[in-house]
Design brief:
The protein is mostly beta strands. Helices cover 9% and strands 52% of the residues. The chain has a 22-stranded antiparallel beta barrel. A two-stranded antiparallel ribbon has the order 10-11. β6 and β7 form a beta hairpin. The longest helix is centred in the first third of the chain and has 18 residues. The two termini are 19 Å apart. The mean pLDDT is 93.
Length: 684
């Protein structure tokens, strides 16, 4: 946090992507002023405007309902929805006929296939933020401090485009040959408002050689969804096109007391620290307006067609998808207002047995209002050799993590791909929901972990620093999002307009093994200096045990329980979500007013579990470079590039690309390509 006073610093950054989109403008300024003899107030303001990118290309999707054309492809309840699928299921001639029909309709309506292009890339974001840091002396070795921030961010994202071929998503009946509202489908937009608030106020000082710090921190994050350029298809042509879909919020308040003292006359020095904390969490979900979630075609009727007595039944009279297309709004039944509290106390000791041998031991007790108590500890040691040029270190610790309020109570319906690559509405149901009960999902339990690490730090020659650390982390009863269930849930899913269901559950035990290596070398040159650095990481996460609760086994109706509960894709995202290795090499050269930073990053092989198959993405090298020049003592100009050579990851195999919509997966360096920028820093 910045503490400078009587000094104004400001910077302006602008840039864009190699493809000509994703423009960025960022402006920030900082100023501080003195308060009394030793106090200060420092304020930073920031504005950022980032345009969207789009890396969607042409695709092989069927565009229009072809029911009225000879041998046309009718809107499916499953396959096929793309020309290659028609060829594989019906035949190549049928696929060519489907393409001819689409082209005929395009010509009749004066449209191009590019008018139906999806949007795949980063969202548009506009952000405003202000941050405060301050201290005021109170006398008697006490200081009052406060810091915090307020940020508002508006983002505009693009859910999946709705093509007129998907008649259940269109706001008109098949008999309406000239609808006024979205006759050619539409591109929904998710307009989200994110507000972050934080404030910490505390007092610190010393009494009798003991250092103490008493503080209270409050933070809140809220997210509201406004869906634009969308419809509730069950309202047909009466649907609004801008609908509030609800939101959620999380807040946390923590009161801390920390006390410490260093005893320099005991052994080679002993540091003792202890303290406690009281924390309260609050999680809320707010419902949207009725049109964001309701199925207006789902009504109650009297069924008098049978010989038995007439009965009241619920029927879908329109066959339209309910709620807002792109993101089904939160229903009143989704609303949540839950709290949790926990109290904690800790003791931490660092004992210098000799000038070269340090041993630390720490323990922490926590008691949760909903999960009970837990005691965890950490042991560590460091041994210095060769006059401090070589240090050996190691640690062992245990951990405890209660499921978050979000994991217990979050529930929504979203549009995503199912295991067959088809767009469907998937419901995430809370752990205490009726869906979880029917599936036999037990209440969530806490995660427990064990961590071990060992490493060295060394300075073998002048100007060379080296660190090597290995680690192993075991997590038991890990909380994960299950695969997609549907069997036995038809009525419950129909009520919320979903086809499949997911829930959070304690499902797996994992082991993560990794190695970090960092080396830096400062090299004086005849003209200037250069700092060379190299950093590398390799890690591997494996599933040691997959636990399917007996109640789920008893209630499951199907043939592949493991594949449904936590199958190929779910396991892949847990164990393969990051490259298996990452290496960073950099050189930072300084010569008087000129500076040049060049960095190259190698992203290792990464396996991504697509909905058709697992795909291995080959290693990738990316180069970043920044050149800077001090125009004056108060102004510096920098120009540079991230991903200088506009490198992209491997293209996705066709089966994972949604018929060509997603050329690239969000792996390794990402899918946006090179970013070129210029920045001006001023200090007055």
């Amino acid at each position: 946090m910045k503490e400078a006073t009587n000094q104004l610093t400001a910077d302006v950054t602008t840039g864009l992507r190699n493809a000509g989109d994703g423009e960025v403008v960022k402006v920030s300024a900082n100023y501080g002023f003195a308060v009394g003899e030793e106090g200060f107030v420092n304020v930073t303001g920031m504005f950022r405007d980032r345009a969207r990118t789009n890396r969607a290309d042409g695709n092989q999707l069927i565009l229009f309902d072809q029911s009225d054309f000879p041998n046309g492809v009718a809107p499916p309840s499953g396959f096929p929805f793309a020309y290659p699928q028609v060829a594989g299921i019906i035949g190549e001639e049928a696929a060519q006929n489907a393409r001819r029909i689409d082209n005929q309709i395009l010509n009749q309506r004066g449209l191009e296939r590019s008018d139906f292009q999806f949007r795949v890339g980063q969202s548009a974001v506009q952000q405003r933020a202000v941050f405060l840091n301050s201290e005021v002396g109170l006398g008697n070795d006490a200081t009052l401090y406060a810091f915090g921030g307020l940020s508002y961010k508006n983002g505009i994202g693009a859910p999946f485009r709705r093509l007129p071929f998907s008649t259940s998503a269109m706001p008109y009946r098949a008999s309406n040959t000239d609808p006024a509202l979205f006759p050619n489908g539409f591109q929904p937009e998710m307009n989200s408002d994110v507000v972050d608030q934080s404030l910490t106020i505390g007092v610190e000082g010393t009494i009798g050689g003991w250092t103490w710090d008493l503080s209270n921190s409050y933070g809140r994050n809220s997210l509201d969804y406004q869906m634009d350029n969308t419809v509730n298809a069950s309202l047909l042509q009466a649907s609004p096109t801008s609908i509030y879909a609800g939101g959620h919020a999380f807040s946390q308040n923590v009161t801390n007391l920390d006390v410490s003292r260093f005893f320099d006359d005991a052994l080679a020095g002993i540091n003792v620290a202890f303290g406690g904390a009281y924390r309260t969490d609050r999680y809320q979900i707010f419902s949207g307006e009725e049109a964001s979630y309701r199925n207006y075609g789902r009504v109650q009727l009297i069924d008098d067609t049978s010989a038995a007595s007439p009965r009241l039944v619920t029927r879908d009279t329109l066959g339209k998808e309910p709620g807002t297309q792109g993101f089904v709004g939160f229903r009143p039944e989704n609303e949540v207002d839950r709290t949790r509290s926990n109290v904690a106390a800790y003791l931490d000791t660092e004992v210098n047995l000799t000038e070269n041998l340090l041993v630390t031991a720490a323990g922490r007790y926590e008691n949760y209002s909903d999960f009970g108590g837990t005691l965890n500890g950490r042991l560590a040691a460091r041994w210095g050799l060769l006059d401090g040029r070589l240090n050996l270190r190691g640690s062992a610790s245990t951990g405890f993590r209660a499921p978050s309020l979000h994991q217990i109570y979050f529930n929504e319906v979203r549009t995503d791909f199912d295991d067959q690559g088809q767009l469907v509405n998937i419901g995430t149901f809370s752990n205490d929901s009726e869906v979880a009960r029917v599936l036999g999902i037990p209440q969530l339990e806490e995660e427990r972990s064990r961590s071990y690490s060992a490493g060295i730090t060394a300075s073998p020659i002048e100007n060379l620093d080296l660190t090597i650390d290995g680690y192993q982390i075991y997590v038991d009863d890990r909380v994960v999002l299950t695969g997609e269930f549907s069997s036995g849930l038809s009525n419950l899913l129909a009520e919320v307009g979903a086809q499949n269901a997911q829930v959070f559950a304690n499902a797996v035990d994992t082991k993560t093994t990794g190695l970090d290596v960092v080396a830096t070398y400062r090299l004086p040159l005849p003209t200037g200096t250069v700092e060379l650095s190299a950093a590398g990481n390799v890690n591997d996460t494996e599933i040691q045990a997959l636990t399917i609760p007996e109640t789920v086994r008893a209630n499951y109706e199907g043939d592949d329980l493991q594949g449904t509960f936590f199958g190929r894709q779910e396991q892949g995202f847990l164990t393969e979500s990051n490259p298996e290795s990452k290496v960073t090499l950099s050189a930072d050269y300084q010569l008087s007013a000129f500076g040049l930073l060049v960095r190259t990053v190698r992203f290792g092989e990464q396996v991504r579990p697509g909905f058709a198959q697992n795909q291995t993405h080959s290693p990738e090298w990316v180069v970043d470079a920044t050149a800077s020049y001090d125009l004056t003592e108060a102004a510096t100009l920098s120009v540079g590039a991230s991903n200088l050579f506009n490198n992209y990851p491997d293209e996705q195999v066709f089966g994972n690309s949604y018929a060509g919509v997603f050329d690239y997966a969000p792996v390794q360096q990402g899918l946006n390509g090179a970013f070129y920028f210029a920045r001006l820093n001023v200090q007055l």
